Amino acid sequence: MACDGFVAICHPLHHAAIMSPCLCSLLVLLSLSISLLVSQLHCLMVSQLTFCMIVEIPRFFCDPPHLLKQGCDDISTDNIFIHFIDAVFGGVPISGILDSYYKIVSSILKVPSTRGMPKALPTCGSHLSVVCLFYGTDLGLYLSSSVSHAPRKGAGASVVYTMVAPMLSSFIYSLGNRDIKRAVQKLPNRIYSF
Fold first, then answer.
1. What average pLDDT score do residues 114-140 get?
2. CB 62 within 8 A of CB 162
3. What is the SS3 assignment for 107?
4. Average pLDDT score, the chain
5. Nearest to 120 by CA among 42, 176, 193
6. Which residue from 142, 127, 56 is spatially nearest to 96, judged by alpha carbons?
7. CB distance 57 to 71 below 8 Å
C-alpha cells in the first residue's frame, strides 16, 4: 500500500505502468513468503524446547516469547534470536513505509499549488492510520510483555492487533468512498430521530 501510494503521488502518469498486475502479484507473494518464513523459524525454534509441565498460556494465541517462558531449557539465545527476527522482519517493512511517506511528503511540499495536498492526504491517511493501529498495538504488546507479566493486558492487545486492526482497516479504507462518507454523516441524524 505504501508503494502504491508513493507511485500514485510521486509518479502519477506512470502509475499504471509501474504498478502492473504482475508487480502487485509479486509483492503479495513476497509478503506471503516472508510471513511463512518467519512462522516456520518460530515453529522450529519452539519445537527444540522441552517442557517440564502442562501450563495454560493466558493468550489469545501462542506467541513464541510466551512459549519460550514455559520451557525448561536455557532460553537466552532463543530470546536474542526472536528479537533479531522481529527487528529484521518488522524493521525492514516499517522503514520502507516511513521512507515512502518521507518521499510522498517531500514531493507534496515541492508542488507550488495547494490543490495537490487535499487529494494526497486522504490517499495516504487511511493507509497510515491502519499501519499505526497495527504496528502500535503490536509494538506495545511486545514491549509490555518484556517488562510486565500481566496476562489480561497482553491478551487484550493480541485481540486488538489480530482482530480489531484488520476489521477496522476495511472500514478506514472505505471512508474515502463518497457514499460511505455521506452515510456516516447522516448517521447522527438517524440516531437522534429515534
1. 72
2. no
3. helix
4. 75
5. 176
6. 127
7. no
pTM for the full predicted model: 0.65
Cell numbers that stand for 55 in this block: 501450563
- The helix/strand/coil state of 78 is helix
**Residue carrying C-alpha cell 474515502:** 176
Identify which of 93-102, 104-113, 158-167 has the greatest average pLDDT: 93-102
* Bridge partners for 51 per DSSP: 71
Is 121 a residue whose pLDDT tops 70? Answer: no
Number of residues that this document lists for the chain: 194
d(CA 101, CA 5): 8
Contact (Cβ atoms closer than 8 angstroms) between residue 46 and residue 66: no
Residue the block writes with cell 463518497: 178
3-state SS of 157-177 is: HHHHHHHHHHHHHHHHHHCCC
User: In this structure, what C-alpha cell is assigned to residue 6?
Assistant: 508513493
Contacts made by residues 85-92, CB under 8 angstroms, sequence distance 24+: 85/38, 85/41, 85/42, 86/142, 89/34, 89/38, 90/135, 90/138
Q: Retrieve residue 169's grid coordinates.
A: 482497516
pLDDT of residue 33: 92
Say which residues have a Cβ less than 8 Å from residue 64's Cβ, sequence separation at least 6: 42, 45, 46, 82
Grid cell of 129 as nine digits:
492510520
